[in-house]
Write a structure and sequence with these properties.
Layout: E1 4-11, E2 14-21, E3 24-32, H1 33-40, H2 49-56, H3 61-82, E4 91-93, E5 99-101, E6 108-114, E7 117-123, E8 128-134, H4 140-147, H5 150-162, H6 167-184, H7 202-205, E9 210-215, E10 218-227, E11 230-237
Antiparallel strand pairs: 1-2, 2-3, 3-7, 4-5, 6-7, 8-11, 9-10, 10-11
Length: 239
C-alpha cells in the first residue's frame, strides 16, 4: 500500500492531516477548539440558533462551553478546507443521523469532539468517519467486553500483559478505530462495535499506520495516530 501522509502543525492549537492511498483521499483537521475560542475572544464567529439550542440542553456549564466552541470551530475548519465562509457551511442529516454538507454534496464529512478537542474529516464523496478521544484514566477492562469480540478481547489482554505501559494508549487507538469505522457506515454505534474487527497486534508498533478494516462487505481504509494525549482515527470506504 503506497502512502503519502503529511501531518503538519499550522498553529499552536491546530494540525492538518492529508492521507492519499490508491484512490482514497482523506483530509482532516484537528483543533483544540476551547483554546481556539479563548484566543479569538469576541472575534469568534456567531453561534447559530440550532447550535445554541443544542448547547442549551446541557446542564454542565463546562460541557456547554466546550460544545459551543466546538460547533463553531468545526464550521470554521470545514470552511477553510472548502474555501468558503463559515456561515456558508450548512449541514443536513441522513435518516440514520449521519451528517452531510447540504451545499457541497460532492464532499463527505465527519465531525468528532472530546475534552475540548474537535476533529473534522472531509472525503471526496465516499463514506467517511472520524473519531477523537482525549486519553484519560478509565476501566478499559470493563469496556473491552462491550466493544470487542471474544477473540479480539483475548488478543488485547495478551497485548496488555506484554506491553502494560502501552495498554491505555492501545485501548484508545482501538476505540477510535472502531468508532471511525462505525461512523463511516452511516449508522454509528447502532452497527455494533464488536462487528468492527481490528488487528490488535498493530496497535502498539506503528505510530501512524494505515489499516484495512472489512465490515459487512465493505473495505475501509483507516488512518490512526496521536497528537500528544489525543487519539484520532479517520476511516473512509473504498468500495
Amino acid at each position: 500500500m503506497e502512502t503519502d501522509e503529511n501531518l503538519k502543525r499550522l498553529w499552536p492549537v491546530q494540525s492538518f492531516l492529508n492521507v492519499v492511498t490508491g484512490q482514497v483521499s482523506i483530509e482532516a483537521t484537528l483543533c483544540n477548539s476551547s483554546t481556539w475560542a479563548e484566543c479569538l475572544g469576541d472575534a469568534i464567529p456567531p453561534i447559530r440558533e440550532e447550535e445554541a439550542a443544542r448547547v442549551a440542553k446541557l446542564v454542565d456549564e463546562g460541557a456547554a462551553s466546550r460544545l459551543r466552541d466546538s460547533l463553531v470551530c468545526a464550521r470554521v475548519m470545514i470552511a477553510e478546507r472548502l474555501g468558503i465562509r463559515a456561515d456558508e457551511v450548512r449541514f443536513a442529516r441522513s435518516d440514520e443521523g449521519a451528517p452531510r454538507l447540504k451545499n457541497v454534496p460532492e464532499r463527505s464529512v465527519s465531525v468528532s469532539r472530546s475534552g475540548g478537542w474537535t476533529l473534522v474529516a472531509l472525503g471526496d464523496g465516499l463514506a467517511i468517519g472520524a473519531d477523537v478521544e482525549l486519553m484519560r484514566d478509565l476501566n478499559w477492562r470493563a469496556m473491552l467486553g462491550m466493544v470487542s469480540s471474544e477473540p479480539e478481547a483475548a488478543a488485547f489482554l495478551a497485548l496488555a500483559k506484554n506491553e502494560p505501559e502501552q495498554t491505555l494508549r492501545a485501548f484508545f487507538t482501538l476505540w477510535t478505530i472502531k468508532e471511525a469505522v462505525l461512523k463511516a457506515t452511516g449508522r454509528g454505534m447502532r452497527a455494533g462495535a464488536k462487528s468492527v474487527q481490528v488487528p490488535v497486534e498493530g496497535l502498539v508498533r506503528d505510530p501512524h499506520p494505515l489499516r484495512e478494516i472489512h465490515m459487512a462487505g465493505v473495505t475501509y481504509t483507516v488512518w490512526s495516530g496521536w497528537e500528544g494525549d489525543v487519539a484520532l482515527s479517520v476511516a473512509v470506504a473504498r468500495d
